[in-house]
Design brief:
By secondary structure, this protein is mainly alpha-helical. It contains six helices and no strands. The longest helix is centred in the first third of the chain and has 30 residues, at 18-47. The protein is elongated, with a radius of gyration of 31 Å.
């Protein structure tokens, strides 16, 4: 039973945040490829005896890896805060819309809006 609940929660959040999860996975894959490419560049520079460029290759590798990791962590940390901001914006929009709706109607229109039974002239004549 616990496994089913755990699995349901996992798949729910995975589906809900699929864009961010795929983006984080893509960033981590880029970091891994940067490490692999760095190894190839180091081998090439050693073969060509151009060791002065090793420093640039090392710095660029770590800049790419650190940027990807920091950005991934930022995306993961702000994943749940984004929901709260959206809900607050919806509440603010609803309040603004209600205020605007209240201002749009005249007194006569408000009377008709809040009447429970609206009768036309024909209804009044039929009643007489």
């Amino acid at each position: 039973m616990f496994r089913q609940v755990k699995s349901a929660v996992f798949w729910y959040y995975l589906f809900k945040f699929r864009k961010r999860v795929t983006f984080v996975a893509l960033l981590l894959i880029i970091a891994l490829f940067a490490n692999i490419i760095y190894g190839d560049v180091v081998e090439y520079l050693k073969l060509k005896d151009k060791l002065q460029y090793l420093e640039i290759a090392l710095i660029s590798k770590w800049v790419i890896i650190i940027f990807n990791l920091v950005f991934s962590i930022y995306l993961l940390l702000t994943m749940f805060k984004n929901e709260e901001k959206i809900e607050e914006k919806k509440v603010k929009k609803e309040k603004v819309c209600q205020a605007i709706k209240e201002e749009k109607f005249t007194e006569r229109e408000k009377e008709f809006l809040y009447k429970k039974k609206i009768r036309s002239k024909a209804d009044l004549l039929v009643e007489k």
